[in-house]
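Subject: Interface between my chains keeps coming out wrong

I've been trying for a while to get a sensible model of this assembly. When I model each chain on its own everything looks fine, but I need the whole thing in one frame so I can look at the contacts. Pasting all components below, labels as-is. Any help appreciated, I'm running out of ideas.
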Amino acid sequence: EAGVVQSPRYKIIEKKQPVAFWCNPISGHNTLYWYRQNLGQGPELLIRYENEEAVDDSQLPKDRFSAERLKGVDSTLKIQPAELGDSAVYLCASSFGGTSGSDTQYFGPGTRLTVL
Amino acid sequence: GQSLEQPSEVTAVEGAIVQINCTYQTSGFYGLSWYQQHDGGAPTFLSYNALDGLEETGRFSSFLSRSDSYGYLLLQELQMKDSASYFCAVLTARGQNFVFGPGTRLSVLP
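Reply #2:
Try treating it as a single job with all components included. I did that and got this:
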């Protein structure tokens, strides 16, 4: 079974440029998460989808970040324009969903973004 | 607010036992998870505790005390491949999101 797929793995851009990250979750997983992880810190949730609905985007900086999950499968996270402080690893995770606390999240390898 | 504390670094030798602690102050508590992350890799799930007590899975065990807002991950018979960062994560309510701790970097020496 394929895991969570993310692309690109690495991205270097100049500040004020746009950037987009793509995520393909594990087949059959209804819940999809985008996290940001700064160096030496734990992942911080940006947005959570249940199927195609964003059920929690309270931590998403909506002035420059946007996300979509068309058809409830693949998802794209966009930053426009990027700022120096956006340099981080952007992780996508998926799970079967539901309200069980033991719903295990499976993480993708992440996209390491460097903003110059 | 949500606050989780872990030691930033732990060092041990091969074959030893190490305990990584996690204390939390959160708006609610439903369960505690542990994840392992190797450098440049993805976090991978290790364990989940919803009830007080010890859960054992092979060389790894996880403990939870809800009354003390405390948990720990116990790694036995350490191997070099266990060198990684370990994160505790609190599920604040059923159907909600996990809040991750800052992580503990474990170094296993030969």
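Reply #3:
Confirming on my end. Chain B is about 0% helix and 55% strand.
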